[in-house]
Design a protein that fits this description.
Radius of gyration: 21 Å
CATH class of the largest domain: Alpha Beta
Number of strands: 20
Structural class: alpha/beta
Bound molecules: guanosine-5'-diphosphate, 6-O-phosphoryl inosine monophosphate, magnesium ion
Shape: globular
Largest sheet: 10 strands, mixed
């Protein structure tokens, strides 16, 4: 049976939530392998909209067991809120939701430190989501983190917390001149808030491997996007985890030898939230127009997303690093009303033409555009490739050619049903 990894091919918010939900209908297991509540994955089914930050986007598929892998960081308050939203809609994940015992916990001081650092040092500002991601991963790598498995013993938890609160208070008071936090109150509140999560803790790594051995269909859900990767992204304007397919093995605890197919999700244009280079960023008026058409406001923070034209060298770098077998192009319908659509096919750098994005030169790249005519028709009702206007098909063919990767699916709306299988679909996941 095939297994499939889904990654963002740009700077996040490509529509991974929608696509994971669509592809997961036939999955036995779906595991998130990195990130935490910095993610905002929107899923719309039958006019019900859910935004998942912490829980895998496949939770609406009744047959899928959803695992929060060991590479993730977890905010129990966000987790609880998501469960409550699901309960309101009469969805109760029960045994279908498992938290790997090795995943790291986000504590309130992580969020404080994240926000203070971003607010107070203009030079080092990244524009993070303020969800405590960087500090939580820093504790993990510093070997002082609190893991989900530590929530099974109050004594172990309290002992670790004591040391961590002392370290956090030193930073809060000494470096940021902020109020310290109370060990007693934090210990009590956090322990209470994690009693449900504690019952969901298991060995995610073993469960995924067992499913693979049984021949079940297993999916791996990425958060953020290739160019926000801690190693390969636009450092330091990145998140703190491995966002590309290379993160699946360490983020779930299975051998990379198991992995088969990787699909990259790309918007039909480009967006970015937070600071950092963005070669095809539009002028204010065009960006405003696209932002309104695509409702480009962050699903986690509500911040307006920066908008730009499709950047093929950016996606081409994702194709190469991940060895993508296919792309899913989302939000094609957002371009419906445009007279002309620009696509960046290459950059100019010091008189040379450069065909692939490279974070080291990102600020100097001058994007080279090809202009294509818009189709000026509504496509959100289309359900077949043949039903798309010729100009829309030409646009997609151009993206395939420039990114050197076939398209497997096209999304023309946020609803699960607004998804079109593409003519040249090469994914085993969709064929078997
Ligand atoms: P993710 O973080 O990659 O899961 O993406 P987000 O959920 O943050 O942002 C994508 C937004 O676009 C969400 O509001 C989706 O509901 C919406 N969306 C996804 N696919 C489409 C599409 O094909 N067309 C339109 N118009 N909206 C879409
Ligand atoms: P999804 O999964 C878009 C960005 C932040 C910031 C940088 C670091 O919904 O695609 P962090 O809080 O992770 O330390 O912030 O990364 N960022 C995202 N941008 N989509 C996301 O997630 C993001 N998660 C983090 O805006 O620039
Ligand atoms: Mg998002």
């Amino acid at each position: 049976m095939p297994n499939l990894t889904v990654v963002g091919a740009q700077w996040g918010d490509e529509g991974k939530g929608k696509v994971v939900d669509y592809l997961a209908r036939s999955a036995g297991v779906v595991a998130r392998f990195q990130g935490g509540p910095n993610a905002g994955h929107t899923v719309c089914v039958d006019r019900n909209t859910f935004t998942f930050h912490q829980i895998p986007s496949a939770i609406l598929s009744p047959k899928a067991t959803c695992i929060i892998g060991c590479g993730c960081v977890i905010d129990p308050y966000v987790f609880e809120h998501e469960l409550a939203v699901l309960r309101k809609k009469k969805i109760s994940p029960g045994q279908r939701l498992v938290v790997d015992c090795r995943a790291h916990m986000i504590l309130p001081y992580h969020q404080q430190l994240d926000r203070l650092r971003d607010e107070q040092s203009a030079k080092q500002r990244i524009g993070t989501t303020g969800r405590g991601i960087g500090p939580a991963y820093a504790d993990k790598v510093n070997r002082t983190g609190i893991r989900a498995g530590d929530l099974l013993s109050e004594e172990v938890f309290n002992d670790k917390l004591k040391h961590n609160v002392a370290a956090a208070n030193f930073l809060l008071m000494d470096r940021y001149k902020a109020e310290p936090i109370s060990l007693k109150a934090t210990a009590h509140e956090y322990w209470q808030a994690t009693r449900r999560i504690a019952r969901m803790i298991g060995d995610g790594s073993r469960m995924i491997e067992d499913a693979l051995r049984r021949g079940e269909r297993v999916m791996f859900e990425g958060a953020q996007g290739m160019h926000l990767d801690i190693d390969l992204g636009t450092y330091p304007y990145v998140t703190s985890s491995t966002t590309w397919a290379g993160g699946v093995a360490p983020g779930t605890g299975i051998s990379p030898v198991w992995l088969e197919e990787v699909v990259g999700i790309a918007k039909a244009y480009t967006t970015r939230v937070g600071l950092g280079p963005f070669p095809t960023e539009m002028n204010d008026a065009d960006a405003e127009r696209l932002r309104a058409l695509g409702h480009e406001y962050g699903a986690t923070t509500g911040r307006p997303r920066r908008c730009g034209w499709f950047d093929a060298p950016v996606v081409r770098a994702s194709v190469r690093h991940n060895k993508l077998q296919a792309l899913v192009v989302t939000k094609l319908d957002v371009l419906d009303s445009l007279e002309e659509i620009k696509v960046c096919h290459a950059y100019r750098l010091e008189g040379r033409e450069v065909g692939e994005f490279d974070p080291f030169h990102a600020a100097e790249f001058e994007p080279q555009y090809e202009t294509m005519p818009g189709w000026r028709e509504q496509i959100s009702g289309c359900r077949t490739f043949a039903g798309l206007p010729l100009r829309a098909r030409r646009y997609l063919a151009k993206l395939e050619e420039l990114c050197d990767c076939p398209i497997a699916l096209v999304s023309v709306g946020s609803e699960r049903s607004q998804t079109i299988p593409f003519k040249s679909n090469k994914l085993r996941w969709l064929r078997q």
